[in-house]
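From the shared-data thread, chain only:
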Amino acid sequence: MAAPDKVRILVLGDSGVGKTCLTHLICHNECLTASSSTIGCNLDVKLHEYKEGTPDQKTFFIELWDIGGRPAYANTRHIFYNSVDGIILVHDLTNRKSQENLSKWLLEVVNRESEFDASQDDFDPESFVGASRTPLLVMGTKCDLVRDAASQRRVSSLADECGAEEIVLNALGVKSLAAGTGAAVKMSRFFDKVIQVKFYSGKGVGSPWVYSSPKYYCD
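Structure, as tokens:
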């Protein structure tokens, strides 16, 4: 029996925003209580049922590439940016700078074949979307540490600019992505979108950048 097809999704964001905990939660449905700074890249895999419950249901491997966010790795990260099918951008709700830096992470991917200059700020979200058509999801972590309800529901400006959705959650909360929750549904739809774009985009499925579902927030 042939192995399931796979898609490759990058998990990007500043060091300390919770990418490793988030990736572990997505793939294993359990909390990672102790983690260290990622050196290079951590790879984790999740089985996903594409269009679950329909006649088109099919099993795929979701590869999540958790990329180390420390500035010291900026000149070597590009080796992980080839053959990308989707991108999850992660920011910390208690650290506004981590949200502001999301555009720089997209620039790294766009400029993967050249030496990246962290000082550049000429990011054009429209050109990124139009050129790559890579499905994008923005995730805000540590909502349990934010007391202000408005901040918990703060949507990344980059998510708006790129037409992407944002999920806000607690990556250390095992129920954050529990089956049936809004966040879990949105995550599943994002995985479906990545698979759709890679394997079915030429078969009349429509634009890969159409997101019609509402934004989901931390309960």
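The CA atoms of residues 6 and 61 lie 4 Å apart.
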